Prior knowledge:
By secondary structure, chain A is of the alpha+beta class. Chain A is 40% helix and 27% strand.
Amino acid sequence: MDELLADFVAETREMLEQSGSELVAWEADPSDRKRIDTIFRFVHTVKGNCGFFDFPQLEKLSHAAEDALAECRAGRREPDSALVTAVLAIIDRISEMTDAIEAGEELGTGNDDALIAALDADAEVEMQSDVAIIDEEVEIAAPANDTQTEAAPKTPAKGVQRSIRLPVDLLDEVMKGVSDMVLARNDLARRLREAGEQPAIDGPFERLSAILADVRTSITRMRMQRLEHLFSSLPRLVRDLSNELGKQVMVDFEGSEVELDREMIEMVRDPLTHIIRNAIDHGIETPAQRLKNDKREIGLLKFAARQSGNQISLVITDDGNGINVERVCEKAIANGLYSRSEIDKMSDKQRENLIFEPGLSTAEQVSSVSGRGVGMDVVRSNIERVGGSIEVSSKPGEGTSFHLQLPLTLSIIAALTVGSGDQRYAIPRSYVEEIVFGNSSHVEFAQAGDRRLVTFRDKRVPCLSLGEVMGSETNGECDWTSKTLILVRLASDDVFALAVDRVFDHEDVVVKPIAPAIMETRLYAGTTLLDDGRPMMLIDLPSIAQMRGMVGGVRTKSTIAEKAEKVMKSKAVPVMLFAGLDGRHRAVRLELVRRIDTISRDAIDIEGDRAQAVIDGEIMTLAGHDTGPLPDGRCRLLRLSDGEHELVYAVKEVLDAADVTEDVVPSEADTAIEGVTLIGGKPIPLLDGHAVFSRYRATKKVEHTLTCRIPEGSEWARTILEPLVQAAGYRIAGEDDDVEADLAIALAEDGEVLTGGARETIRLRPEPEDAGDDTIYRYDRDGLLAALKRIRTGRAA
Amino acid sequence: MNELLLMCTIAGRRAAIPAVEVQSVIEVENITPIPGTPDFILGLTALRSQALTVIDCSLAIGLEQACTSKDQRAAVVDIDGHLYALLVDEAHDVGEAKSEPVAVPGGFGEGWQRAARGMVETDGGPTLLVDIEHLVSGPLRQAA
């Protein structure tokens, strides 16, 4: 019996959620029979179930609502907003009762009779109800079937997802089991490595690993919920609020199929509610006002969700009056948050974002809806607590948008693992802006009182040593130049540098809560397990910053302008500048660099043509060692990755990150570089990632690669065309390759030679003018690459 | 009355932890220290894929001497969803309580008075029944 009851409660809840939005939609369009049918089915089901369980009050309520709706369906009554309000009140009461049933409490009589009375348009209808019901019962079956068959072809894609209900504990249990399995696998992997290569075991083990990874992903997905769950409750909220405030608001959803961690959905519910309240209360104008402003009298509140990587972006837009920036500023000055001169210096964006400052509310009058002292600052801190961020943009008279960025799950975060003393710690990567070495020539240390300052890129930022925070060393004994500095930007835009001994890696970590006694130190936000099963603490940067007074200290207003500039130069190619072992400055595309390793000279083994380095127990191919002598002691390596393979490139010093905005001038003399470009007015050779990988890596598996024949005996083809074609994923067919190539590239001026023996041909012309003969200009890089890609994908398919 | 107890030795004294609270008894191998925490929190250790907070029972009671243990035995308990490993000198067997926990005139002495729920009679003689929730919050918080 208990189980049946639980099912009843769960089913009722589910239907409650759905019918909430249906009701509002129905009110907007009373002629929408489908909505009425849905709500009717809901109360009808409740009524039926109640009879079964013997809840006379619940039955009476649902019966009354059913009657009223039946009248509407039969066309004897026009649904009006009074009826909708009354039905909503009943549905609310049903929801309350459901809660009470679940808790095993008395239902209480409440004012059920008044609720039922509110349903009646006039007394006559009720008198007839006995008769009407009999009619309706007959009718119910028919139209219900009709709408189903009608609706089915219209919305087949919506498809009913087959689902079962599972207790969350069970999911967590399974999740834990899988985590255990991953640890056991890691342990096994280590032992297998130690035991040497055993093909008979390695194969199946690899497969096991792959399956395990899949299972882990699926389990993570099991914790996900579609945003629909969050959205479905919003129309009702918007309706209630707008009614209360005498406004008309329409809601629009986009991306309700985006999935988010169940817990995360609960965490954003409150902030979202608050934003909606604000939008309706302050943003959207009254209908009269809107008509005066040449807008539709119904305001629009739009929710758009999108997944990008492991982040969800949620944009809430209203078409109201926008933020009155002037008033926000006045208020900020009046409340003593900022001085007039500080405000004058701010960009428009910063002024808009003032609304997130604590102690600021623009509402002149405190209404019942918003402006109750709980401000946007609470919204922001709530969003930030779950690792998200919020920004606002607004256009006067046109509306306001809130941009929320949320991590996909609460429990998995992207982290940087760092070392300090003998310990490893994880730092949430969202705070990390940049990593620099303390001994880099761009970094200068200074001291003001006892406070260490570091100057980097002409900014002076305060510096904290993680070792000192953790109590393993004092500031006095700290050797700053041997440290790695992590520039941390908090959500409040405060920047400081955190000095650590080493930066290990970036990885996604599963964060678990920690005991209250550890929480009290306010140093840690959680714990996570390393692959080998050892625990590692996750550092609570905002809290440490606050304890150390890093918040609100040296404000770095200038950096925002810098950021805007960066966006403008979006075409620029980011590169990393370094000094090779010979001391010459070079650059490498930043995308290639996975991380920077520092190892001791002993870990490098060079013998003849073979050069290898040992990093974290792994042997990696070493490149770049031939340009000059290896330094004694510690050696810095760039770990380059082409997505599949990794190798390390020895450098003397890592200098800086820069953007290549000038053209890269190809060099024919040096095949190891892509070309030379100007960075800061100096010519810098740009390392050719392709050349490095092709030289130090065995050629790629040939069977999967398409072959391409390029004109032989042409200098241009060999030096310019060949790398491009190879980079596009082709193997260059040699002269003695007799097989039919997949593609041949011919120069138009050579005439019709060498097109045999290839399935496709691209012809290149020397002049930029379009000759109208399907040729491609030889320096039309985009055109050429597009053609290469088209042929490759065509072949693969 | 017949409550089952895990018999152990804390700071050389006979003590007991209610067996229903104890999930398992483990030998703690590696402890990752956590800087910045009070002394009685030794650090974290991993049990399968979970991190346990390791508590030195002796220090947690407020005694000056840390637990001296050869095999680093600890009782695993779950308090408010957090797992703790309570490190004791020695963990013995599970025994039966022969009496309700009672107070003893004059108390059990500094520290013990706060951390013990009372004295129970067992087969091995009078034993102090430890209040594990007091243990995990440490000596400082109790004083406050």
